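Action item from last week, closing it out:
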Amino acid sequence: MRPNRPIYLDNHATTPVDPRVLAAMRPWWEENFANPHSVEHAMGRAAEEAVEQARAEIAELIGAEAREVVLTSGATESNNLAIKGAARFAVQQGSERRRIVTLATEHKCVLESIRDLAAEGFEPAILPVGPDGLADLDRLRQAVDDRTLLVSVMAVNNEIGVVQDLAAIGALAREAGALFHTDAAQAAGRIPLDVEAIRADLLSLSGHKIYGPKGIGALYVRRRPRVRLAPLFSGGGQERGFRSGTLPAPLVVGLGEAARIAAIEGMLDAGRVSEQRDILLRGLEARVPGIRVNGSRAARVPGNLNLTFPGPVDAQGIMQAAPGVCVSTGSACSSAAVEPSYVLRALGIPEAEARATLRIGIGRFTSPADVDRAAAALAEGWRAASASGAGE
């Protein structure tokens, strides 16, 4: 490794492609580049077989059947298809259920999908979370009734890393006769997932969050009892009619290989990453008195730290003073926004403190040396940013 390379600690934004994933994809660009839907000839059939093998590997990761996996361009498309598709199909069938229940800390694409449906006559119920970022199950139970069509709750929050009680939420939705969707982009490969155990009807995945390629994802769609969706766009009717368009065989193969590796090595990764997270936190706590972890510490995904630095200081100033460490202030999907994180605001964190908060994501390829260097660099960045802020 290059001695002066940046320390990458932004694994919630994206993960590097595992070399084994890259090796699995390469032949499908260079040697067999056929359209996997061109099954009239040998190369097309070979590409189709590779796609179906990948589909089976994705299904294995979440305890599903291969035929329940719909391939998409990523979790944003999967979330849109799950939420809008379920709602619009219900209307087509004459259902009177109109309520869609979610949390205020969900990913932007979930919140915006639900807000889009409000213009179509649906009733959004966007519930607050506790100071620890977790859903209030009693409040959720009160909101989910015989008017509820869908409950959508993220498995692992992409900013604060908290793990929701999916089994309890899934049971609650099932009892009310509502569908249960979970955005599991940040959960897959980091915590165990089983669609039967959590009673999920719909579950979204993304390749680039599990050391696979960007531009590919999947949506689990339950077959028994059968979940029906209206497609988002028209076309050739691929993917059981849910998602038309030519499948990118190399990317699908990459997602399949990433899922295969995650199923085998995920728990080993989790143990190592959790240990490195704790070492990094101890290093920062020793150097930065008053630093605070946001979100539940107990119900937390391995590798995540969401840290508020004592002020007066700004997170952007810390990052500028520590350019050798790649971290973020929150979701990459919202990084262009100038306002502080809406997730942190939902936890009741004041604006000034939200602006002094960094998200850290440790991953499969983070080394012990990276952790030690990052703790020192971020603490020094905080001191420099604090001195600059105090002098203004």
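Closing note: The CA atoms of residues 308 and 357 lie 4 Å apart.
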